[in-house]
Amino acid sequence: MSAPSTPNEGGTTTLVVRVENKAGVLARVAGLFARRGFNIESLAVAPTEDERFSRLTIVVGVDAAPMEQVVKQLDKLVNVVEIRELNPAASVERELMMVTVQADPPIRGQILDLVRIFQATVLNVGYGEIMVSLTGSPSRVDDFEDLLRPYGIVDVQRTGKVALSKLAKTAPDPLAP
After folding, report:
1. Residue 38: CA atoms inside 13 Å, Cβ hemisphere, count?
2. Cα dist from 54 to 27, 39, 65, 105, whole Å
3. What is the enclosing helix (H) or strand (E) of 86?
4. Distance, CA of 143 to CA of 161 (rounded, Å)
5. What is the pTM of this model?
6. For the chain, which domains are there?
7. What is the DSSP letter of 88?
8. How do 129-136 and 153-158 pair as beta strands?
9. Across the strands, what pairs with 121?
10. Measured distance CA(17)–CA(43) in Å, rounded
11. Cα–Cα dist 168/84, whole Å
């Protein structure tokens, strides 16, 4: 378990929690946050390379001091194996968004220009709508959504943030203990 750090921009903290892949674990983890009065801003869950475990990436809006208490209580849950708090400067964060936008033929070119600029992907095209996806940093996804909003967002789904720690840029010292 790593010590809590200062919250990210917007007062959020990103926790990565490895849990046993068993029924009810997600409900117990989410319940702990609810009991403490913390809103989970995003939650991504997936199995790990070891099928016995799942990885939860939890983004929660909190101050640093109460987060320390939540991490301690989370660590006491039976099925929790490991808890890490990600430092935004030392991690890579991504989010996926799928969005359907009104795109009548006369303005479709403007939307496709945005798709090209953001290197998004066209998933489906209808007569008056277009569905696109974008994967990127949460702020990049926010920017893309903001630019699409004036055209008329019909439907949007975002995964929430997933993140991994950045990799070391230097080789370890072979003489270090």
Report:
1. 28
2. 13, 21, 27, 44
3. strand 80-86
4. 15
5. 0.79
6. 9-86 (3.30.70.260), 92-163 (3.30.70.1150)
7. G
8. unpaired
9. 133
10. 11
11. 17
